[in-house]
């Protein structure tokens, strides 16, 4: 639920060039987006168009070649606890139990033990992993690992969740369940979410706003508001109409031909 | 944000768990492995016995002679010479040198390896030197170490240290270098930096590799004890072997060899069980 009273996340004039040997790759050319606090934004686009690059810049892992990012009203200079990344391959700390992974962030501030315990139980409960609190990540399924990764950034009070194809490695059923859980968490906590996906259906199901990126060099080609009421029903005709519309805009950037063949009767 | 998060309905309540599968054959498998592992040395001893008997050599002791020597070395009462019932003294002296050198190597090698792994400038500064020093055989250091430390245990400890240092250093550095960089990113975004990063991320992430290095180094330490105790110390398993050589008592030499092997084996099992316990989180690490 977008909230205009809190400061938005501002991406202003961000470009990124990579030097590979003697070549320069322009990965991003001038990205300008303002994302309201609490908004759920999906980023979609062809492989290699710069989605991960943009997300990593917002996370503060990489520096933009030019341009600025503002989070919480402040210009970002590096990774910070206001922005939490959820990686596709989880990146959990394998030597820590589920509980210790979740409270890793809060623990850095050295609060009293009781506070740590409260945070641990609150977020274990939120992602339904109370019974697995003392397990190591290697003893969890992919879906459980991703729940831990989400809880880990939320427990650290992140106001923005950056998710790079978070459910890409999961099977369809687990994926659906996690989409549902993420939606619930988002509606309760009011976090801002930037969510990279390759699935149009996933984007339309979750997003307030879908940013379609196109490649060569990466830029935002379409900015689509999804006005469907929530919770959304993937089988409804309205949902399908929106999905087709987004898919058409996506494919028009992928391969112009695809549009023509699609409209021809078969 | 996250002012108050209450429990979510249905789906999020609890993740399902797979039922545990009991392994019945585990016990039989373990017995079989012990039987096979012990069976082969028994076969070797038999071969040794028949080979000595068949050739009638007097240069190599028979297993029986070695067993008698081992008994005398342990409990005395047979030859009653300078070596009778002295086994514990020699083991103890050797262990102080093995572990003196080994722990010194770990105490310097692990922190240095962690820093070399993380700090490029240190890598540039030290890598070439290390790679030149490393191929020099420890035995080549023998004359110099006797000049540095004189005759006595310190020279032995130094040699063991040299042999144990490089595997620990290199494995630690390798461990740090092969950590998924996302773990550092994840830690940084959660507010971890500086020395906390070393303690909480770099060290534990490199731990499987560090234990590999410790295990290799520990093996080297026992190997090098014989060389170390050639530096003219009066006691220790290495010096027993050297004495056996000068006195042409091969039964004593073989006895010393067996004791070193057994000590190395047992202490290695201890390291393995410690590492299995410390690394229980790591699915790849069960030796
Ligand atoms: N570290 C890097 N060095 C050089 N080039 C890079 C680097 N990271 C990304 N690139 C280039 O930048 C472009 C964008 O990459 P990016 O990973 O952001 O794409 P993406 O949209 O996330 O793709 P995918 O959907 O496959 O994950 C690509 O052309 C890629 O080759
Ligand atoms: Mg990507």
**With helices defined by DSSP (H or I, 4 residues minimum), what is the helix count of chain B?**
10
Task: Quote the beta fraction of chain B.
Answer: under 5%
| Number of H- or I-type helical stretches of chain A | 9
Give the class of chain B from helix and strand content and strand pairing.
Answer: mainly alpha
Largest sheet of chain A: 6 strands, mixed
Distance from first to last alpha carbon of chain B: 46 Å
- Taking all residues together, what is the mean pLDDT of chain B? 88
Q: From the coordinates shown, what is the CATH architecture of the largest domain in chain A?
A: 3-Layer(aba) Sandwich
How large, in whole angstroms, is the Cα Rg of chain A?
Answer: 19 Å
What structural class should be given to the helix and strand makeup of chain A? alpha/beta
| Poorly predicted runs of chain B | 1-12
Q: How much helix is in the residues of chain A?
A: 25-40%
> Looking at CATH, which topology of the largest domain in chain B would you report?
MetI-like fold
Tally of domains of chain B: 2
Please indicate the percent range of residues of chain A in DSSP E strands (runs of 2 or more): 15-25%
What is the top-level CATH class of the largest domain in chain A?
A: Alpha Beta
What are its keywords?
heterodimer; A: 266 residues; alpha/beta; Rossmann fold; 2 domains; 6-stranded mixed sheet; 4-stranded antiparallel sheet; 9 helices; 10 strands; disordered C terminus; B: 287 residues; mainly alpha; MetI-like fold; 10 helices; disordered N terminus; binds adenosine-5'-triphosphate; binds magnesium ion
Give an overview of the whole structure.
The complex is a heterodimer of chains A (266) and B (287). Chain A is an alpha/beta fold. Chain A is built from 9 helices and 10 strands. In chain A, the strands form 2 sheets. Chain A has a 6-stranded mixed beta sheet with strand order 6-7-8-3-9-10, sandwiched between helices. In chain A, strands 2-1-4-5 form a 4-stranded antiparallel beta sheet, covered by helices on one side. In chain A, helix 4 (113-126) crosses helix 5, helix 7 (200-206) crosses helix 8 (237-254) and helix 8 (237-254) crosses helix 9. By secondary structure, chain B is mostly helical. Chain B folds into 2 domains: 2-60; 73-285, MetI-like (MetI-like fold). In chain B, helix 3 packs across helix 4, helix 3 (87-118) packs parallel to helix 6 and helix 5 (142-149) crosses helix 6 (153-177). Residues 1-12 of chain B have low confidence and may be disordered. At the A-B interface, strand 6, helix 4, helix 5 and helix 6 of A face helix 7 and helix 8 of B. Magnesium ion binds next to helix 1 of chain A.
